[in-house]
What we know:
Protein name: WG repeat-containing protein
Keywords: Signal
Radius of gyration: 25 Å
InterPro entries: WG_beta_rep (IPR032774)
Shape: globular
Strand content: over 45%
Signal peptide: 1-20
Organism: Veillonella tobetsuensis
Distance between the termini: 58 Å
Amino acid sequence: MKRIFLALAILLALGNTVDAKNYITLESPAGNTIVDETGQWILGPYKDLHVNYIGDFGKRYAYASFYDNNQKRYINLNSMVYLPAGYDYEFSYEYARALTKDGFKLVKSDGTYAINDVVSAYYYCSDNLIYGKKGEFWYLYNISTGSLVIDNPITSTWENVNKYYNGSGQVVLLKIETADGYIKYVTNDGIEIDEDTATHTINKYNYELMDGAGTGYGHGYNGIKYSREPSTQFIPFSIVDKKGKTLYGIRLSNDNVLIAPKYNYIEPLGDDFKYFIAVDKHNKYGIINVIDQVVIPFKYDSCKRLSDRSFVLKTAEKAYIFNAENGMLVNMAYDTIDTSKPIYMIDKFTIATIENKKYVIDSNDGHIILTLPETIDDITAYYDNLYVVKSGDTYGLMNRYGNILVNPEFDKVTIDEPIFNNYMKYLSEHDD
């Protein structure tokens, strides 16, 4: 006898969004069939046909897996596009990992490759470019084609790649020091250009450099301000299990359970984000997403807010930045990261240390903006291109390139700028 199984649990937990399609699985001896909420046929019958949902606040991705002629296939139900055959997949919001014995290929939601190579890790570079790691080296790929932009290996995406930005804060050009000793210039469109063309373009359009060694502005801050208020959409709740232990989960405002209560601690990172900080049974911190997938492994000793969108995860030895806006752990480890700066500062930059050297870093993407002079202990204020710096108990002034304009010999340094003062007043009234 046929039986109908409503595969809607996660959808109901997430709540319906406008124009979202509900997928219903009909099970029968001939195989499973998927129909929509009106009974309209979508797919099947196939053996072991199942739907996997990924909710992304305003977007909902659904993938189905099934067996066809004894081969497992995957299809994006939103676009009815088949993913490349011959792989099992792991799904995330932006990409699917086509798993191989040595790693994975990276597949976009349209079924084409973002990285058509077997890699062990990937890391976002820009809107059109992405890094993939093979062996000990990184390589640069064009997201549109999935192919290599340059054949040369890169030792560090942090130290060996300098990014040039336009006036809107977008990456427009890369300068890459390759592991085999070349200097390569690549546009954001994935086109390699020579040094003369790159220099001409940089000068013509006044592109601004932000490099790993560090001069210039940080651009992880995109002008959007996210709320620090406790989440109203995601609500922690607890139960006491049979052993008397309190376990925590997440429910929605309509009381539907989103994350089952199984963690020692859990906290939403905010209504604007799709991630939660959680603590496992070993009292280690990690990051999970709205479908309870582990995004950042449970191996950290603490988690603390840094900016309006970033958080510091710490082990006993190192500190790392997790950006909740893009769901990425910054590919850089610091000894310390200062989380105590005023909000108007820390939303854009903070102070970090590596081996007793102090750096001004972008709070959101972790890039080094500049290296603090050895005589400077801290930055206490900034406006436009100026930093008020502290050395011991005295203060001075420094520009954004790390050049000392006024030696730190004064009891107090105030930037007497009406616009700055009005700006500070506004921030004090609107910080949340």
